[in-house]
Amino acid sequence: MKYIFIAAGIAAVFALLLLGVAAVVRAVARPVPARKLADYGDFVTVDGVTVHLWEEGRGHRDRDVPVILVHGFAATNWCWRHTIPALSGNRWVLSPDLPGFGLSDKPGEFDYSLSGYARFIAALMDEMEIDRAVLVGNSMGGGVAVRAALDYPDRVQKLVLVDSLGYYKREFEAYRFIGLPVVRDLVMSAAGPRTIGFLLKARVYHDPSAVDDETIRRFAAAYQTENGRKAPVWVSRGLGTPPMIPREDIRKVTTPTLVIWGEKDRILPVAHAGMFGQDIAGSTAVVVPGVGHVPHEEQPEAVNRLILEFLERGGIGNSPPEDG
């Protein structure tokens, strides 16, 4: 029996050594300028931070209130590739890579809390000369949108929360371990196309066959940029442990809100959809069957229809989750 333990120990040490070598190799690799990796969108400067911005429908800016799409943790604005064309037919639609992710800057001194990101959204609106906007946020991006609606209520006309961060989940307590140097280095040394593909298929999407190589490649590109392997740790620390919004704050949201949730979400439970629908006055919650944490990627037509219908009507009364 002791030989089994010895063999397991040797295997573990060997695995750690391999990860350590991988970390060193990646650490000495020279960062790739974000502009060299970008093949869509443009770059704007917001409060001194260079931001990769995808926008469509600018010609409609005077026709109706613009829509700003906010991605989640470790994602990029590429996640809205199915949403932007659908919404930009009659509205100006903008989607930034949040600071710390994608091809935007990843400064160590940025405030990576939800409040800090909410200030960034307000600053982006100032830079683009937008007075009010509809905010659509997925996962962490939904938490940013909620925080912006609380901190800048006059600037947010409507909210769409897609599998949004908000409520407590026990598993989030594990985030505190990411800050430990050994864990941090091991986790970030493993960040690459293979790991990203595995996580998307195992946790994010319900249907793993829906994960395509291009999405994996674009998500992985962030780790080639300056501070690409440090920023996710900074963001985890900035969000706090556990990352959440106090329920009493969520109940203060007065913005007309649509909540959309994937029935099979493995990251944030579908029960949270009903909690948002109950806690935000004038909101409704819709559950999209058979999809995971990113329903706008797995069932874009259904989600686009829900968003477009919501944009064309006013707020409605609170209701329990309904099937999409």
Please give the structural blueprint.
Blueprint (H helix, E strand, L loop, with lengths): L1 H27 L5 H4 L4 E5 L2 E8 L10 E4 L12 H5 L5 E4 L17 H14 L5 E7 H12 L4 E9 L16 H9 L3 H12 L8 H9 L9 H9 L7 H4 L6 E6 L8 H9 L3 E6 L6 H4 L1 H12 L10 E2 L1
Parallel strand pairs: 3-4, 3-5, 5-6, 6-7, 7-8, 8-9
Antiparallel strand pairs: 1-2, 2-4
Summarize the structure.
The chain is α/β, with parallel strands linked by helices. The chain contains 13 helices and nine strands.
Q: What can you tell me about this protein's structure?
A:
The protein is an alpha/beta fold and 324 residues long. The protein is globular. Helices cover 40% and strands 16% of the residues. It has helices spanning 2-28, 34-37, 83-87, 114-127, 140-151, 181-189, 193-204, 213-221, 231-239, 247-250, 271-279, 295-298, 300-311; strands spanning 42-46, 49-56, 67-70, 93-96, 133-139, 156-164, 257-262, 283-288, 322-323. The termini are far apart. Strands 1-2-4-3-5-6-7-8-9 form a 9-stranded mixed β-sheet, sandwiched between helices. It folds into 2 domains: 1-30; 34-323, Rossmann fold (3-Layer(aba) Sandwich), CATH 3.40.50. The protein contains 13 helices and 9 strands.
Proportion of residues in helical segments: 40-55%
* pLDDT averaged residue by residue: 87
- Helix-and-strand structural type: alpha/beta
Number of domains: 2
Number of helices: 13
Strand order of the largest sheet: 1-2-4-3-5-6-7-8-9
- The share of residues in extended strands comes to 15-25%
CATH superfamily of the largest domain: Alpha/Beta hydrolase fold, catalytic domain
Rg over C-alpha atoms, rounded to the nearest angstrom: 20 Å
CATH class of the largest domain: Alpha Beta
Name given to the CATH architecture of the largest domain: 3-Layer(aba) Sandwich
